[in-house]
Amino acid sequence: MKPMTHFLSLLLLLICLLATVHGGGHDYQDALSKCILFFEGQRSGVLPQDQRQSWRANSGLSDGWTYNTDLTGGYYDAGDNVKFGFPMAFTTTMLAWSVIEFGDSMPPNEHRNALVALRWGTDYLLKTVSQPNRIFVQVGDPIIDHNCWERPEDMDTARTVYAVDSPNPASDVAGETAAALSASSMAFRSSDPSYADTLLRNAMKAFEFADTYRGAYSDNANVRDGVCPFYCDFDGYQDELLWSAAWLRRVTQDGGYLDYIQNNGKTLGAEDNINEFGWDNKHAGLNVLISKEVLEGNMYNLESYKSSADSFMCTLIPESSSSHIEYTPAGLIYKPGGSNLQHVTSISFLLLVYANYLARTSRSLNCGNIDVSPTTLRQIAKKQVDYILGDNPMGLSYMVGYSDHYPQRIHHRGSSLPSIKDHPQPIACKEGSVYFNSSNPNPNPLVGALVGGPGEDDVYEDDRADFRKSEPTTYINAPFVGVLAYFVANPSPN
């Protein structure tokens, strides 16, 4: 009987391994919990008593003093200590959209945690538009900051405040801030209607600033040296105007915003760059967002947006004649340029949202030579998620703290330096270099952080210095919150 017992044990092990390879072994709820927890490690300002990333402490407490205003709070966007307004606003929009579309799929405690993460962003964004005809777009000099390797709690670098005053334009940042605040007002409507009203009122004000003074914020000489080359507006400001108008339309159902989209779509290039979606280019997300009302029959004159959304989805289907999105040999969506997982998580989010819109209206997608069902879109997204969580040639989870095998040397100052709790003495700007250059694992795991991910060959070296692969960002995680919430409720999509 012993050989048979041994055989059965091996067979069971093989079945378990196969289940893991095919995604059956993933704990999406655990991944969701960690994905939201990540944002607590990126907090700036005074941390609350229930702070769970306990190696962090208060930081950036004088932010805004040069303008005699309170600009504390918000998020550090990545592994540095700068608060970049453009990506922070997009992060906030995507957290809100995650709650709007998939909040019902979240366990109640994680739904609350997601709203807490969202409010940390919106409370700060409200401060950035608190003064008439001015928007604060950044805190921290990135050149000086990037020349140091120090904990946010030790910051002794210039906390330069970058502001744009009318009539100088900031349509991109103001537009994305309007989108973030309006989407967030929808996310908070049922739990905190008064706060939702405040968010919506300020969203309208930010949109008016964005539309009245049209242009890219990074064209302004007074902020260009601070925001470029990190978060310049590379793809134009027009998409943010339409994106914010589309969100205000969704939230308010006001016909004025519908008229704005109809009257400005062509002049603002609504159909340009449809294959991009991220902190700088909103076109694919804009097309998906507007398609909801087109599919529901509420926007007959905006069919072109749905056609563009269809076209984008078809580019993701390998079997489609219009497929042209690159995949790695193991099946990960890949776009050159670094920090690839930002594309993977945002595109996966759009796949699931569009699949839901199609399914609710009993539609499918025609990609020329093939018809594509909502289930197919969900399966593509699931393959991306499972790859990120460990179903890849490296056998590596690209989320810190998920599974037993994940990146140990992420490009992140607070994570890689000793915690101020363990090492209360300040670590000066250049004193941190020894930790940056160390081959040791980071002492403070930034649980839930998604790194930039592997290269086009599916290889990841776990090198702290290779920031394109090893640096986490808030805008990689934000759409993944919604993606994981969907799979918590639908682990085997159909």
From TrEMBL:
User: Which EC number(s) does UniProt give?
Assistant: 3.2.1.4
Check the record and name the Pfam families matching this protein. Glyco_hydro_9 (PF00759)
Write the protein's name: Endoglucanase
- Reactions accelerated catalytically: Endohydrolysis of (1->4)-beta-D-glucosidic linkages in cellulose, lichenin and cereal beta-D-glucans
Q: Which residues form the signal peptide?
A: 1-23
For the biological process aspect of GO, one term held by this record is: cellulose catabolic process
Q: Please provide the record's keywords in A-Z order.
A: Carbohydrate metabolism, Cellulose degradation, Glycosidase, Hydrolase, Polysaccharide degradation, Signal
Work out whether the entry's keyword set contains Hydrolase.
yes
GO terms, molecular function: cellulase activity
Query: Which family is this protein grouped under?
Result: Belongs to the glycosyl hydrolase 9 (cellulase E) family.
User: Is Cytoplasm tagged as a keyword?
Assistant: no
Q: State the active site.
A: 411, 462, 471
Which InterPro entries does the protein's record reference?
Answer: 6-hairpin_glycosidase_sf, 6hp_glycosidase-like_sf, Glyco_hydro_9, Glyco_hydro_9_Asp/Glu_AS, Glyco_hydro_9_His_AS
| Residues in Glycoside hydrolase family domain copies | 28-484
